[in-house]
Design goal:
295 residues, Oxidized Rhodanese, domain 1, five-stranded parallel sheet, 9 strands, 9% strand
Length: 295
């Protein structure tokens, strides 16, 4: 797996067969050239990610704690999963064994919707060769490939990170974006419409945003839609490769929106992430909330 151009699907996704072949050629030791494997087992409302990792993970994979390693402490002002500082992310990445020039593959057991946060953060902080395992743990197991139990403690890495390699939006920029660009809301449709709100203080969506649930990026088997289908999905929302209009994405707290940024990258569209997302927006009483199926 060599680095590819950002607009190439293979630059952001790796299939189970490709990864298995890579590991057979290199072994599972990053010191021998294998990719660093990161297990980001997390889902909203669950706290047993590490226990599930210990019970079975890809050989050589290191557990990543999304709450403490892929986010700064939550606050009403910054949202539920603010971006970590460079120092925080660098210390975590070194614990995972990431070195200068490392190849990295991230995965989870929820269609990539949590692992994409690790993909986005590493790319944002300048680690260029990062891919998400298409289909994740389920696809690996379905192919009859082996799992390993227990904790993996790699040799510490030496990576040095610098922020700013992917675009971001703050709340003011997210508010203005629908005027000359496209703002996508990656949450479930019922949350977008304001019918339910399980975690944040107000229901609804950012005025002008279009509903584009992250789950729509995936097929029934939990892998990403074919490239042509992804292009068609986003074209229906007015988003096409080569269109100069800016594109932004938000969700509840900036986690699953990373999945949408990745899906857009796979079809040649560079999208900005609004890290504070609805958890930040809805905590600010000065920000309006739209409801219903329309922007």
């Amino acid at each position: 797996m060599t680095a590819a151009r950002p607009e190439d699907r293979s630059a952001v996704l790796v299939t189970v067969d490709e990864l298995a072949a890579d590991l057979r050629l290199t072994g599972v030791d990053p010191a021998d050239g294998a990719p660093v494997l990161l297990d980001v087992r997390w889902a909203l409302g669950r706290t047993d990610g590490q226990e599930r990792y210990l019970a079975g993970h890809l050989p050589g994979a290191v557990y990543v704690d999304l709450e403490t390693e892929l986010a700064a402490p939550a606050s009403p002002e910054a949202g539920r999963h603010p971006l970590p500082s460079g120092a925080q992310l660098q210390a975590a990445a070194r614990r995972w064994g990431v070195r200068a020039g490392s190849r990295v593959v991230v995965y989870d057991a929820v269609g990539g919707t949590s692992a994409a946060r690790a993909w986005w953060l590493l790319r944002y902080f300048g680690v260029t060769d990062v891919r998400l395992l298409d289909g994740g743990l389920d696809a690996w197991v379905a192919r009859g490939l082996p799992l390993e139990v227990g904790e993996v403690v790699p040799e510490p890495g030496d990576v040095v990170v610098h922020p700013g390699h992917l675009p971001v939006l703050d709340a003011d920029e997210a508010a203005e974006l629908p005027g000359d660009g496209v703002l996508l809301d990656a949450r479930a449709p019922e949350r977008y419409r304001g019918e339910v709100e399980p975690v944040d203080p107000r229901a609804g969506h950012v005025p002008g945003a279009l509903s584009a649930p992250t789950t729509g990026n995936l097929g029934q088997d939990g892998t990403f839609l074919p490239t042509a289908a992804l292009r068609e999905r986003f074209a229906a929302l007015g988003v096409r490769a080569g269109d100069p209009r800016p594109v932004g994405v938000y969700c509840g707290s900036g986690v699953t929106a990373s999945h949408e940024v990745l899906a857009l990258a796979a079809v040649g569209v560079t999208a900005a992430l609004y890290p504070g997302s609805w958890s930040q927006w809805s905590n600010d009483p000065s920000r309006p909330a739209a409801t219903g199926p329309r922007p």
